[in-house]
Amino acid sequence: MCGNNMSAPLPAIVPAARKATAAVIFLHGLGDTGHGWSEALAGIKSPHVKYICPHAPVMPVSLNMNMAMPSWFDIIGLSPDSQEDEAGIKQAAENVKALIDQEVKNGIPSNRIILGGFSQGGALSLYTALTTHQKLAGVVALSCWLPLRASFPQGPITGVNKDIAVLQCHGDCDPLVPLMFGSLTVERLKSMINPANITFRTYSGMMHSSCIEEMMDIKQFIEKHLPPVD
Description:
Blueprint: E1 12-14, E2 22-27, H1 34-42, E3 49-53, E4 58-61, E5 67-70, H2 86-105, E6 113-118, H3 120-131, E7 138-142, E8 166-171, H4 179-192, E9 198-203, H5 212-225
Parallel strand pairs: 2-3, 2-6, 6-7, 7-8, 8-9
Antiparallel strand pairs: 1-3, 4-5
Helix pairs in contact: 2-3
């Protein structure tokens, strides 16, 4: 997965029950692995969709006193004006684009792939979708923010995903990534891509986690944007 870490374990995969004609690539949060999300997605799976949950490389994380843990890129702080790991974020996005390319080689066109993630993984999925030349079916961004937001021009983006469908979800009691981050992110997204295609859902009482209602919303979004083709 990571260019400088050949020992990163292979992604956790929920195979399609029949021929895979679509895929969901889902990126976990800081300190986690792909296994938990692969189990959650297995609970809402569609028979023609393959679910790929890669594991982040293990690296020291500044936010956690440089302790090594699975992380897509370094996180220096969690306030809106915190310094960001620009090189790490851009490298991580390239690694995700390589995963998408691998699925295209496997016979699933990129416009039949939804990219998603939770927290740090959701941030990376948003950044990747807005910077890639691969046309995607949609993005699922859970409890997250848009990294390197100052690097994007003001106004609409011109890339292949300027009309991409986005499902952004956030708990209203999130102590780690406050709901305000989600609200600011959705406003920024509306200035960059077609606002008619952005859905922002909040969940009462939900902290930095997921819930059944959110998983049902994700299931509906995947079914809408990755319908069966056969």
